[in-house]
Amino acid sequence: MVYSLAYRRPPHVEPRRISTATADSGPSIGGTTLDETHESLQDNSINYGVPDALSFDRIIDGGTCPPCTTRDFMNYLIYIEHAAENLQFFLWYKDYVRRFDLLSEKERRLAPEWTLEQAEAQALALKDNPAPMKSISAETAAVFKGTDFDVPKTTIVELSKGGSNPFGTPPMTPTSRDHDSIAPSEYPWSDSGSTLRSGFKASHDKKAAGAFAAADVKLQPFTIQPFREEISRIISIYVAESAPRQLNLSSKERAGLLHALATTTHPTAFRRVIHTVEWSLRHQAHQNFIRWTICNGNRPRVIFARGLGIAGIVGGILAAVLIVLSNAGRGWRVLSAIGFGIGIATLVAAWKGMCVVLHGMHHRHLRPWELFAEDDDASSVLEMKKDSFDTLGSNNSYEDQPWVAKYEKRNLIRKVFDREVWIQEPALRQIQDTIFLQAVLGSLVLTAICVGIFVALPKGRFY
Q: How many Å apart are CA 233 and CA 391, to the nearest integer?
């Protein structure tokens, strides 16, 4: 069974920002909203090469098989797009909404809903009163003195005096490399990633306070509200400037979110931000992930397949030319169709990222980070998988993981003929079957045209 012969795989979508002005015109998770236009795109995702069986919601809900699971989606965002923070934040928010709804009525009253009227009023206030100018050092001010970037002296004096601002620059959040030097009892989160420990609580509180100060938030957050410590950590990991998993938010979005979080810990405080994050996941990262997953071979294998396709076409042309120049009958020229047919089909499939040999067995190459999973220590592999799904973890750096150096040392021939694994997801196999059928049908048409041209030529009679 295949999809329509007019099927086209999803186009590559470049990252782009969207306006949050229409963030309240359609339903989304946790009572927040999505634009109706985006909903229509979601409903008609098949037009963009993504069937319903591989929809974003189905992948997130665990309704797909490898290599289209949530784990595979996360690995793609970490190792290929280098932008896993959106999915990590989205998964945290989805779980946060669930946990907030489980609170008692008395606890929920402590964190009132952040209404649309409050959000609009805050947006207007931020538009009329931009964020205050940041302080800079005296050395930097001296460099810009006399230029268009000259700054007021008061800004320099406040910084040079050190100031008594309690929201000074806090300690940096520990990175993944810092974990090796920290005793297990000192981690600020539990093994499940859901319960905060007291080890680095003060560090996250200070960084959150610094973010509130940078956004000119006058109101001190209410510590009695539910999940206030967790919200402080979310701010230090995803929202604050230079955070280890900083979201791609504009200054107005960041300031608006911080003003909302200073008032309440209700999930609606994230209304506009989660809209931006979810839209980016659904209509940029998800489509690129499906397009990337359709490719069943690694880059060296696909380039090798393209070379074989070109070689087959060149072989067909040489065979046809030699037969035309000889005294052989016209019927012998049809033999060139073998080279044309195999070469064109292989080239068309490879141009769409598929190797026809791997497709014949419904196999795919193992990804570089999957290749050495069996060789590496089991505990290190488990830690690597845990870190990516730890929504309250550190940064997403992977350069120090063991497989990176091992794969770089792997020679080209081994990369072309890397280990393979069967594709378990039926919908993905259907997509690949459709692309293969398109390649074969296109090859038949082009082969018929090419062979017809050579058959129509007169004999050369050179030998």
A: 10
